[in-house]
Amino acid sequence: MLKRILVAIDGSPTADKAFDYALALAKARNAHLHVVFVVDIPVAYVADADPFPFIEAMRLQGKAIRDTATQRLKGEGVDGDVEIRELLPLGGDVAHQINVAADEDQADVIVVGTHGRRGVQRLALGSVAENCARQAQRPVILIPPAAADASGAAS
């Protein structure tokens, strides 16, 4: 029985589809939806630069994403919350943070899009979704870029 769902978002179209799916699932199951955004700047982007402007930009993006997700939760009447996590030092493991958040929230399932914005890190280390599924101690639902409308997900 699904009572607690965690969805990881990053502002990408695929993460938006994962959020749509998780929102529909939570609404249909009357479950709590915990939304997580991880502030992460891959080391390759700031190797020769001051990382603070990049970190601050990601924090601002996280706040905007949090506000939008919170509005959608309220608009759909879904019980939930939105968390922003930071990866410091830079270059940490986003997938690990998603799984830690799922453990802390005692999520029954993790929902994640299969193509987030990971750039060079994805090429070098594999995708966040793939690593999240490998590390997970609970079921993970992977939402591909060409996912169908989420409304059928809940049934």
From TrEMBL:
Q: Where in the cell is it found?
A: Cytoplasm
Q: State where it is primarily located.
A: cytoplasm
Signal peptide region: none
Which residues are in the UspA domain? 1-144
The protein's matches in CDD domains, at most eight in alphabetical order, are given as: USP-like
Asked if the record carries the keyword Cytoplasm, the reply is yes
Asked whether the UniProt record includes Signal among its keywords, one would answer: no
The UniProt keyword set, sorted, is: Cytoplasm
Coiled-coil segments: none
Q: What is the superkingdom listed in this entry's lineage? A: Bacteria
Q: Which family does it belong to?
A: Belongs to the universal stress protein A family.
> Could you tell me what this protein is called?
Universal stress protein
